[in-house]
Amino acid sequence: MTTGKDLEYLLEARNRSIVGQGTIMLLAVVVAALPALPGVGSYLRVKVSDAVVALLPFVVVSLAAAVIFHRKGLDATYNRVRLLESWAVGWTICSLLYASGSAHSVFWVFYFAHLTALGVGVESRQNSYGVLVVCPSLLALAFLARYGSVASAASSLVVAGVGAAVFATIRSASDSVRERLVTEVQLRSEIADLEVQREQEQLALPLHRELQQRLLFTRTVLESLSSHDGIPSRGVKRLLERLDGALMELDAATVALEGDVRPWPRIVDDLQARLEGLGGSCQLELVDTTTRAPDRIAPRRAIDLERAVLEATRNAVRHARAERVQVRVCADQQLHAEVQDDGTGLPEECLTRQEGGLFNLGRRAALAGGRLDVLSAGTGTRIVFDIPLV
Asked: In terms of CB atoms within 10 Å, which end of the chain has fewer, N or C?
């Protein structure tokens, strides 16, 4: 995800590119050569030597900053050199103004250009204020000491105050634009990730359905083998149980991929239809005690509830030899399922075993932020499954 630091690096990479750094150096050469042009030197009242002395520190520091950035990126050394570069710019501007001997020189244009660059940049406010206020203040003292001009000194201080105010305005607007830009880039990145996820899910759904068909065919073959002589029925039975568990997991994954948000009454109806195929000679009863159905139930949570009920009911019918199973479900404050049977109860090893359907239900409840309680006696078993709605 793109952050403010990433945006800062992109901006610096643009400024320190061959084109960006080359443009800065070209401007420095142009400024240094201006006094050599006929009539320009006398108008600016600056000699070529003055311009070279003023620009040389900036050129050296700027080139050093470019080299360090390309070698180390936005590390502490580069940040220190970048800070020094801002002060070198301040030195250059004030040196040109001082050499001109006038507080009303056109070189103030460079000062306002610099404060604009600092305003839209990422340098700290403290350092920027220091450059924009301290440099003109020192220039005012220099005008006062060399020329004794109170007016020039006062003009420099006024410019410093105006520059600080303009910088504050530009920086506030720039920060706001930068925050919006970062937010926009992050949203675009999230949308792109969602598009990739959607394409993956579209590819995964047909694969899940194909796998379901293959597993169902395998289950049919296993059921037919269980009636053959010479094939251990107990082993086939265990394989069928494991295959049923895999089919339930696959069914849950398929529903989650489809993203079908079902209302609570439909969830209850679907559960009733699936329970009817498990009963056999056992009497099954489904009771919905919900007083006020929730507006939304997460598809994954609905699948978790159905799996818990079906697994607990299947165990009661197949293993506990129950004659009657009552299932109570509710969705008032959370998803609640309670399966009560009158079977033979669960052996102690089933309650402590670290595998199998009961263990998986407990783990799934914990992952969903809920809990599974199992109460078993010789006359029956009661399983309670509670998970959040979303």
From this structure: N
